Structures are given as C-alpha cells and as structure tokens.
C-alpha cells in the first residue's frame, strides 16, 4: 500500500475519535442522555482518550468527563475509581490553557458532591497544581481553578485548612483585584467558602488583606458580585467580636445600607445577614449600627420582601433589642414593632414566624413601656393563637410561649390583657391575673373599666386550687372591690337569689 | 447621743446624693430622650437618602431600557427600509385609507438603509502632500489679510531685500525622496483605484460563469482548524524551526531598506560655490 493510503487509515481513525468525543461532550449536556451514556460504559472509553496524541481530543475528552461527573455522584466516584485524577493532575501542569480549564472543570465537578470525593482530590495532590493555575495569566484558567478550590473548601474545616495550607488565599485575594467580573465573583465565593468554617480560617483570610478590597467592591454595580462580597464579609464577621470589629473598621457603614435597597433579592438577604452578624456580638456594635441608621434601613428592607429573604433582618432586630433596653427602645421608635407583627401574621413559614415571635419577645421584655409598645399593636392575641394552634411546629410554640410570658410579666396595659382572660390556657392565665392584681389596687379608673367590661365576672369564674398562686392573685383582686360587687358577680349568685325568693314569706296584712 | 442626729442627717444627705448620682450618671432620662430623638432623625434621613437612591437607580434603569428599545426600533427600521412607500405605491405603513401615515412610516423615512456588508475596515488614508502642505502653511505661517504695499520703500540700513526675505520665510516644504515618492506608492495607487471601482459597482458579488452554476457545495474545513480548541500554529502560522540560541543578535532581517538621501539634496544646498543652482 502506498504511503498515502496508510496515512489515510490513521486520518480516518483520528476523525472518528474526534467525532466520538465531540458527540459525547455534546450529549452530556443533556441530563436525559447521561443514564444511557453511563450504561454504555462511556467512562472506560473516555479514559484512554485523555492520553491521546491530539490535543483537541484530550481537551474534549476532559470536557466530556467533567460534564458527566457534574451530573451525579456515582459518575464522580467512577471518575475517582478509574484512576483518572492523577493523570489529570499531571497534565494540568503542562498543557495549554484550554486543557487546564477542562481539567479544572473535572476537578470541580468531582469535588462538589461530597467530602469524601473532595478528600480524594486532595489526596492525589491536585491542590498544588490548582494553586499554580491560579497564577496563570489567562483569566479563564484562574476562574476554573478558583471555582474548583471553592467547591473543595466548601465541605468542612479540614478540607478548607488543606486549601489554605496549599497557599491559595493570597492568590485568591489577588484574583479579586482582577478586572474581569466573573473572576472576581468566583474568587469571592471561594473566599466565602474558606472562611465560613472557623475563626482561624477567617483570620487567615483577613490577614491576607482581603477586607479592604472587599469593602471597595460593595459599590460595584454587578449584583451577583455584590452577593458574593456581602457573603464573604458576613462569614468573616460571624465568628468573633474582633473579626466583626475589623469588618466594621473597613467603613462599610453606611454604604452597606444602600445594598438593602438593591433590586436583587439575594443582595438584600446577604446585606441583612452581614448586619445581623455584626449586631449580634456586643451592645457597642449594635449601638454603632443604630447610630448609623441601620435599624430603619433593615425595617424598610423587611417590609419590601417576602419569605426567607426577611429572616436575617428579623433576627437582626431581635439581636439588637436583646442587648439593652435603650436599644430596644430605639427599635421601637424606628417603627419596628408594627413591621414585625405584620411578618408574624402574614408569613406562611413556621421558622420565620418563630423568629418574629422571638424578636418581639426580646423587644417587649425590658420594661412596661416596651411591653406596652408591643401590646398596643395587637400582637399578643396572634402570639397566643400561634402557641395554642396544633399546626405550629414545636419550635414556634416554644418561642411564642416564651415571648408571651416575657411580655406579660412586664405588661401593664390592661386593654390588651383583657382578651387573655377569656382564651388563655391556665399557665398563661396565672401571669395575666398576676398582672391585673398588680395594677388594679392603684388605679380606680382601671377598676371601673374592669368591672364594666366583664373582667371581674370572668375572674370569679376561674377555678383555682386554694393556696396556689392563682388563688392569691384572685384574692388580691377581690380585695380591691366591695364585697357586694364580688358576691354579685360570683357564679351561682342568681340561684341563691332565687332560693331566697322561694323561701321568702311575704308579709300579709 | 448626738450620733443619732448625725446618722439621721447622714441618711438624708446620702439619699439626696444617691438620687442625684442615678439621675445624672446611671440613667439620665433627658439624655435618653435626646438620644432617641437623634436616632429617629437619623433614621428619617437614612430612609430619605435610601429612597432617593432607589429612585435614581430606577430612573437610570428606565432610561437604559428606553435607549435599548429605541436602538432596537431604529435597527428594525434600518433593516426594513425597503417597506418605505414610493411615489407610485404606498407602503404597508401608509395605507391610503388612513388620514395619517403610521409612525413607522416616519421612522422608516428617517432611517439610513442598512448595508448588508458592513465594511469595518477603516482605511487609513495617507494624507496627500498638497493638502497637508496647505494646512501647515496656513497655520504655521500666518499671513495677514491685507497684502503688503506694492512699492515698499527699502528700509534704511543693512537689510536684505524684502522679496528675498519673504521668499525665504515662506519657502514651501521640500520633502525628501523617501517622503515624496513612498516605496509603497504603487500599492496605494492600486488600492485607490480599486476603491473607486468598488464605488461604481452595482453588485459586489463576483460574476460567475454559468458553467459553475451547479457548483454550490459548501467547503467543509478541516476539523483541526475549525475546532474551538485551536490548531497548532506551527505549520500554518510559522513554518520555520527557530533556534534562538544560534542567533547572533536579536534583530531580524530587514525586508524594506530605507533610501538614502543623496539625490534629494541635489541642487538644494545653500552653498553657491558649486554654482549648480
């Protein structure tokens, strides 16, 4: 055979390989094909193509593998078991940028499913090569490497520590400063995944000087970038007071408050998470937030969104109010209580209702002024109904009970307490009657109102064990009134009167 | 005996002092009221500022949307320019049964027709000498609006002849051979000619002979060159095998040599000793 014919055989084979690998890569983009591909044994066919002579075939094979591993963890495990990873890591160091991107994609797709798979990636030495890829001049390669590192570090603290030990953090901080927006986003998300596990890891990120750059990027108009930046800052600030103070020192207030007005829901959520993480540590930090007008901004933000987006804002109000009564009063005058009661009544989810109940409890528990401010908005009946309803979850019931108890123990606003006499269960009734017994001896107008509204009658109908606390309260209420009134309202008084009528002998002339 | 009196008085003093201390340092009611007022004022200010900010953002977005819409409509009008009504036939947007033409009709009238091949090459026209000269002489040698008087009396003193001075002063630029006759002049002239022909062309497509009418199969390029991962540039972009270690210096061969200006200075030197002028 002539030379040309021999070469033609090779050319045909190469064409066939290229076509196969491109078709597999395209089919792997659609989830319905992947089962069929898996059953046809695509993994064992793709593996030798990774070592092919032609670079195009290698790259396309890596891309196809990545897409397959991305789909579910069985395939990712098959990639690990097939000893593909060491080959990928070895070629990652040498090949051109397209191959690097494809290989980093495979590592990311394998590492995202579970900690064991991510550990397998770390064990085959991929971290060092990925960190070298972070220094590449092509932004696409950097992005792929940063993404893979982020997904590995996401699972737990040991993997995060391994990523940090490979020296990724300073390079990620450099990546954040690059002009490409996609690279900034991915680098920020990777830093967020690293710093969320423990204070030491967050401290490492802070030591690399990330906070200053992140604080500048809050002003960037891209909303996905803002999401990630706010997420990193909140993960850093959540661990300790020092870290939260460092975040505050980067002068994020009042710029962060503009993020609360952003169109994107998740930007609002992450911004309120950041403010919550800062507010929860000490009263001084909460004071700082209140002085900057943060409470009003958060309340407006709660009013403008629905569902899970509201949750961090509600918790933030609870944390601020919990520190001291002055801060709780600041929350009250910023019109926080009507907003929280709206959340309590309209939200369908139990955990958000529980958070709102907890926050209201924190606001109302300090002094009678605070309790009055909460009671005036008619939230106490709502809380009671949530506590009594059988559909509420246990957490919601516990939190609403605590809130009712803590508010009632300080509440002297009688019109709000009256409905409680009628529908409250005995353990709450005790507190209600106790409050009445504290207020009534000193206020004559309240005594008159109590009689005319039928409260005294209801109190008489309460059956209490003699000698219990409830009986003592009832006695002290009864002592405020003349005996005839008490006897008039006691149950069965009409029967005794009728008996007297029966036994009365009229005087006959 | 007096101790009772002293104790009673001490109690009074201490009572007053404790009250004062609590009201001033531990819980200053008026300071708290001031603080809450300041907080509510700050809240109002922040709320206003945030509202303004949100409004501004909305306005900007609306403006950007409007601009995008406008651009899209303009592009559509440019693409469908042929739907404009002519003198004979009213177009579809200009129905004869309507009083006013449709607003699209007006838009079509205003739009510039979209050419199919948008030649993106902005050719750098080499500025021809005459125009450049004229522009430089107009700027760097400003002439007054009124001409100098015809019979100007010679100024007394060792001055040169006025005409000679003016001649020297307004001497035109004498470009060298290299500038006056550029080495790629032929290529430039060819391009110019081609441009003029293209302007006069009615149809840009090459006229094919009828024998090639059935040859309409599209050329399928190699998978090598059409894959998005890129071919190896050796063999297509550079063919030589380079060995930088064997290079003597780091300059490449010159393909175009500069001219030397022996002949451009011919007859233009100041010295009159040669008397060639």
TrEMBL record, chain A:
Coiled coil start-end: none
Cited InterPro entries: ARM-like (IPR011989), ARM-type_fold (IPR016024), Armadillo (IPR000225)
Any one GO molecular function term: microtubule binding
Record GO cellular component, one term: extracellular region
Main localization, broad class: other
Alphabetical keyword list: Cell projection, Cilium, Cilium biogenesis/degradation, Cytoplasm, Cytoskeleton, Flagellum, Microtubule, Repeat
UniProt GO BP: epithelial cilium movement involved in extracellular fluid movement; filopodium assembly; neuron projection extension; sperm axoneme assembly
Location within or outside the cell: Cell projection, Cilium, Flagellum; Cytoplasm, Cytoskeleton, Cilium axoneme
Entry-linked Pfam families: Arm
UniProt function note: Important for structural integrity of the central apparatus in the sperm tail and for flagellar motility.
Cited PANTHER family: SPERM-ASSOCIATED ANTIGEN 6, SPERM-ASSOCIATED ANTIGEN 6 ARMADILLO REPEAT-CONTAINING
Description of how the protein assembles with itself and partners: Interacts with SPAG16 and SPAG17.
Protein name, UniProt field: Sperm-associated antigen 6
From TrEMBL, chain B:
Highest rank taxon of the organism: Eukaryota
Keyword hit for Coiled coil: yes
Key words, A-Z: Coiled coil
Coiled coil: 32-74
UniProt protein name: Spermatogenesis-associated protein 17 isoform X7
């Amino acid at each position: 055979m002539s030379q040309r014919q021999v070469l033609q055989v090779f050319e045909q084979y190469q064409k066939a390989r290229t076509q196969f690998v491109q078709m597999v890569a395209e089919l792997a983009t659609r989830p319905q094909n992947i089962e069929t591909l898996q059953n046809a044994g695509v993994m064992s066919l793709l593996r030798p193509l990774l070592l092919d002579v032609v670079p195009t075939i290698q790259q396309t094979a890596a891309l196809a593998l990545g897409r397959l591993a991305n789909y579910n963890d069985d395939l990712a495990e098959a990639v690990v078991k097939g000893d593909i990873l060491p080959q990928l890591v070895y070629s990652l160091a040498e090949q051109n940028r397209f191959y690097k991107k494809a290989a980093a994609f495979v590592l990311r797709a394998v590492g995202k499913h579970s900690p064991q798979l991510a550990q397998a990636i770390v064990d085959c030495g991929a971290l060092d090569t990925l960190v070298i890829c972070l220094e590449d001049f092509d932004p696409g390669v950097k992005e792929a490497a940063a993404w893979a590192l982020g997904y590995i570090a996401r699972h737990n603290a040991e993997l995060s520590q391994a990523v940090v030990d490979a020296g990724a953090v300073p390079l990620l901080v450099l990546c954040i400063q690059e002009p490409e927006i996609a690279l900034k986003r991915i680098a920020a998300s990777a830093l967020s995944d690293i710093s969320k596990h423990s204070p030491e890891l967050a401290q490492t990120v802070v030591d690399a000087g990330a906070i200053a750059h992140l604080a500048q990027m809050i002003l960037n108009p891209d909303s996905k970038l803002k999401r990630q930046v706010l997420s990193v800052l909140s993960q850093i600030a959540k661990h300790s007071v020092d870290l939260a103070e460092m975040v505050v020192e980067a002068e994020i207030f009042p710029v962060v408050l503009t993020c609360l007005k952003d169109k994107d829901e998740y930007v609002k959520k992450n911004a309120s998470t950041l403010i919550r993480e800062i507010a929860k540590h000490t009263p001084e930090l909460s004071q700082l937030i209140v002085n900057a007008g943060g409470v009003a901004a958060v309340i407006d933000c709660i009013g403008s969104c629905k569902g899970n987006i509201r949750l961090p804002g509600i918790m933030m109000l609870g944390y601020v109010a919990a520190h001291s009564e002055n801060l709780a009063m600041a929350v009250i005058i910023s019109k926080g209580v009507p907003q929280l009661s709206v959340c309590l009544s309209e939200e369908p989810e139990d955990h958000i209702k529980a958070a709102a109940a907890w926050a209201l409890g924190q606001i109302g528990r300090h002094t009678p002024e605070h309790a009055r401010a909460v009671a005036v908005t008619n939230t106490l009946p709502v809380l009671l109904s949530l506590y009594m309803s059988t559909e509420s979850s246990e957490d919601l019931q516990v939190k609403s009970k605590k809130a009712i108890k803590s508010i009632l123990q300080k509440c002297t606003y009688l019109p709000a307490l009256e409905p409680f006499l009628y529908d409250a269960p005995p353990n709450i009734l005790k507190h209600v009657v106790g409050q009445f017994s504290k207020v009534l001896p000193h206020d004559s107008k309240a005594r008159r109102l109590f009689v005319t509204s039928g409260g005294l009658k209801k109190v008489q109908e309460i059956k209490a064990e003699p000698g219990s606390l409830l009986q003592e309260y009832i006695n002290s209420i009864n002592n405020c009134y003349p005996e005839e009134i008490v006897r008039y309202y006691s149950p069965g008084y009409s029967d005794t009167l009728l008996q007297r009528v029966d036994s009365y002998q009229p005087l006959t002339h | 005996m007096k101790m009772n009196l002293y104790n009673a008085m001490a109690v009074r003093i201490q009572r007053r002092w404790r009250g004062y201390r609590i009201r001033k340092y531990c819980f200053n009611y008026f300071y708290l009221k001031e603080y809450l007022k300041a907080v509510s004022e700050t809240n109002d200010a922040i709320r206003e500022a945030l509202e303004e900010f949100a409004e501004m953002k909305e306005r900007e977005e609306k403006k950007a949307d409007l601009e995008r819409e406008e651009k899209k409509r303009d592009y559509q009008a440019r693409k469908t320019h042929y739907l404009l009504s002519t003198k004979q036939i009213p177009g579809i947007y200009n129905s004869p049964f309507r009083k006013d033409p449709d607003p699209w009709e007006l838009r079509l009238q205003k739009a510039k027709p979209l050419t199919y091949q948008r030649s993106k090459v902005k050719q750098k026209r080499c500025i021809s000498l005459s125009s450049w000269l004229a522009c430089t002489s107009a700027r760097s040698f400003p002439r007054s609006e009124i001409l100098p008087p015809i019979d100007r009396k010679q100024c007394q003193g060792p001055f040169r002849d006025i005409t000679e001075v003016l001649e020297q002063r307004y001497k035109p630029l004498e470009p060298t051979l290299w500038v006056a006759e550029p080495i790629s002049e032929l290529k430039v002239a060819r391009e110019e000619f081609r441009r003029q022909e293209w302007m006069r062309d009615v149809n840009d497509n090459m006229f094919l002979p009828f024998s090639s009418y059935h040859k309409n199969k599209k050329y399928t390029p190699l998978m090598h060159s059409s894959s998005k991962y890129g071919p190896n540039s050796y063999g297509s972009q550079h063919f030589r095998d380079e060995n930088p270690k064997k290079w003597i210096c780091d300059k490449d061969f010159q393909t175009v040599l500069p001219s030397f200006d022996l002949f451009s200075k011919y007859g233009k030197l100041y010295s009159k000793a040669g008397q060639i002028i």
